[in-house]
Amino acid sequence: MEHITETPTLKAPAERFTGDVYLNMISTPTEPARLAAALVRFTPGARTNWHAHALGQVLHVTDGVRLVGTRDGKVVRVSAGETVRCPAAEEHWHGATGTTLMAHFALVVGDGSGDGTTWLEPVTDDEYAAALAAVAG
After folding, report:
1. Mean pLDDT of the region 54-72
2. How confident is the model at residue 22, as a pLDDT?
3. What percent of the chain has pLDDT over 70?
4. Distance of CA 115 to the CA centre of its chain
5. Residue 107 to residue 95: CA distance in whole angstroms
6. Residue 134 belongs to what H/E stretch?
7. Cis peptide bond N-terminal to 8, omega within 30
8. 52, 62 in Cβ contact below 8 A?
């Protein structure tokens, strides 16, 4: 057993996120383990770039409201206590709404050569605005 009493909070890399996002790594896998787990906090309006995971991703919201969007235009609004499973290789993004902070646990099973994430271009302001409009009301 290993008791970890503290994990440092790091600012997420600007080349993968729009806005201010903070990350606490819970589990960084070492072989043979492949599960990466992090607590990720998004300020209002912050979001990931488009990306995909070789073996999928599970996101569990702990605080606030999150948006998750896919290339086909589907957007879901996810509240605290709810979970979204993103299938393998599906290009998607996720982030906070424009008015509230959001935190979630991100769980990714690596592909043996890292976490299996392919990072793509930023979500545009127009794409983000369209996602907000799609879940309004």
Report:
1. 96
2. 98
3. 99
4. 13
5. 15
6. helix 125-135
7. no
8. no
